[in-house]
Amino acid sequence: MTFIDDEIARQPESWRICAELVRTRAAGISGLPTAGERVAVVGCGTSWFMAEAYAQLRESQGLGITEAHAASEFPPARNYDRIVAISRSGTTTEILELLAGERGRTPSVVLTADPRTPVIELADDAIVLDFADERSVVQTLFATSALTLLRAHLGQDVESLAQAAELAIVEPLPDTWSGVQQITFLGRGWTHGIAREAALKMREACQLWTEAYPAMEYRHGPIAIAAAGRLVWYFGAGAEELRDEVAATGATFVHSADDPQVDLIRVQRLAAAMAVERGLDPDNPQALTRSVVLASVS
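Predicted structure:
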């Protein structure tokens, strides 16, 4: 078994731990946004996509303006009441430079998997999810655990997610999926972040051609590549608006009634399985490392 297979399977347990930490207000769970604060949520790669999902969820609940940024594109002239940073390794150069630049100006909290990481010293508060750390370069467990903790802090039910995830981990995936040529992932609102993460998982683990779009933008050009032997995977509500149009192209339309975070597990499993089928190592994809550490960022 690869590391990623084990880490995918550990998600329901990890989500429950996150929910319990928030429910009990455990030590080390501090610095998260309060209602009304203007918040920036930042990350790189997978963490950026989790930031987008959380930002959309928080703002949609009327808790305050919440904007997601890739750490390298953070707008320093913009004023925020708080920065929420997500970084599994805590060593990513762009995150460290951002927090160092905002230190003393904007309160910050970081979600990370490593208690010994340098980001701990730069953020005002740190939430360490060491139980969700990973050996695979490709993120699955930490990403969804960080999002789960943030969703729990918004008051959302986690137990139902964990129960559905347990089923998604063991259910058979259609045999036809592993032979697809291309997948386009779609989402609306917070699920667009999930769609972007799904596309990244397939590119990282098995080098598949994938794309991701806001669902209603799909008609404005991207649908032109839909064809037999390809999937269009829709996360969340509103799927019926596109189902028939996709079917007319010959592409297979994929949609689940499960919460999109749960449905993401199916993508993770597919990515890991296709990697092995292609003779690739999903734990150590080509050209990727656990953390991007740069000599300098201009």
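Summary: The domain at 3-159 is CATH 3.40.50.10490 (Rossmann fold).
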